[in-house]
From TrEMBL:
Alphabetical list of InterPro entries matching this protein: CBASS_pafABC_assoc_protein, DeoR_HTH, HTH_11, PafC-like, Tscrpt_reg_HTH_DeoR_CS, WCX_dom, WH-like_DNA-bd_sf, WH_DNA-bd_sf
Protein name, per record: Putative DNA-binding transcriptional regulator YafY
SUPFAM superfamilies: Winged helix' DNA-binding domain
Keywords, comma-separated and alphabetical: DNA-binding, Transcription, Transcription regulation
Domain HTH deoR-type, residue spans: 11-64
Record GO terms (molecular function): DNA binding; DNA-binding transcription factor activity
Record Pfam families: HTH_11 (PF08279), WCX (PF25583), WYL (PF13280)
Source organism superkingdom: Bacteria
Length: 331
């Protein structure tokens, strides 16, 4: 009897693992699932039938491009949530994905895309109606359409191309991309993607996108940069006409606590020092920001910034010397 119980527990765990895999990606082939689960394709077929018995609509396609796909349910699969709980959960996740809950945006978006996969159509209308009646105030991220976030997150997960209109100077142009990751800063959502027309990696602000759509054309993932690091460096320096690097005589953790992540990249450089990379519309502006941190620092580049340091020092010394003699003699 103990062996039978153990076999049943093993089957249950495997079926739940299968369900998790089907929620992570749009389409899996039978051999792919068999390899991930460590079983035969025949066992995968039996486990798929078990999920269908539980109320999950698992579609099976034949031929090239076919495979197993988890479809939206006519009813919520038994187990988990009734209609009211599903609506409350979805609305809460929408708020979290929008930045209303500090630190919850990424996790809320992942959970929302999973819930959206099985949410019946009748409940989606109720969720949209409720979410439209919710407003937020104060700080947080720039508001974005949660459906746009879900579309992009799904395209990243399913490895399919995406398209959207995006401002470029005074024009709005259509962009075709291979989406890789959504990245949330303290202020905004960004998409790291490979721009097919420019043949290079780019970061895009989600709140500037319009007419966002995922295509059916799948792509082979490329070797990608670290998403969070790439987007942070883009936001903090590459978007500005002037970039500067400093060696600051303070621990990296201390400086990170003083500077928003969207304003500078801070990298440790040995004991008690760090490198600060930032950008601005003028070199004087970025120089003053580093000066006001209150730590000793050195200019790494550009060379022009060293000259700006000396010019600023002379102006500060002159200002600190008080009024000139001629000014003092004037009535």
């Amino acid at each position: 009897m103990d062996a039978a119980i153990g076999d049943e527990r093993g089957t249950t765990e495997r079926v739940l693992t299968l369900l998790g895999l089907l929620q992570q990606r749009r389409v899996w082939t039978g051999p792919e699932l068999a390899d991930r689960l460590g079983v035969t394709p025949r066992t995968v077929r039996r486990d798929v039938e078990r999920l269908r018995t539980l109320g999950y609509r698992v579609h099976a396609g034949q031929g090239v491009g076919g495979g197993y796909q988890l479809g939206p349910g006519q009813d919520l699969p038994p187990l988990l949530l009734d209609d009211e709980e599903a609506i409350a959960t979805a609305v809460s996740l929408l708020a979290g994905a929008g930045g209303a809950v500090a630190g919850a945006g990424d996790a809320a978006l992942r959970a929302l895309t999973k819930l959206d996969r099985v949410l019946p159509a009748r409940l989606r209308h109720e969720v949209r109606a409720l979410s439209d009646s919710v407003e937020f105030f104060g700080g947080g991220r720039t508001p974005v359409d949660p459906e746009v976030l879900m579309t992009l997150a799904g395209a990243c997960r399913d490895e399919v191309e995406a398209g959207f209109d995006y401002p470029s100077g005074s024009e709005v142009r259509r962009r075709r991309v291979e989406p890789y990751r959504l990245v949330a800063s303290d202020r905004r959502w960004y998409l790291l993607a490979y721009d097919l027309d420019r043949d290079d990696w780019r970061s895009f602000r989600v709140d500037r996108m319009t007419d966002v759509a995922a295509r059916t054309w799948r792509f082979r993932p490329r070797a990608a940069p670290d998403a969070a690091a790439y987007v942070q460096e883009s936001v903090a320096s590459r978007v500005y006409p002037h970039q500067a690097r400093f060696l600051v005589h303070a621990p990296a953790d201390t400086v990170r606590a003083q500077v928003p992540a969207s304003a500078a990249v801070v990298r440790p450089r040995g004991s008690g020092r760090c490198e600060v990379l930032s950008g601005a519309g003028s070199l004087d502006f970025v120089l003053l920001h580093v000066l006001l941190l209150g730590h000793d620092f050195e200019v790494i580049d550009p060379p022009e910034l060293g000259r700006r340091c000396r010019a600023l020092a002379e102006r500060l010394l002159a200002a600190g010397a008080g009024p000139s003699v001629r000014d003092a003699e004037q009535p």
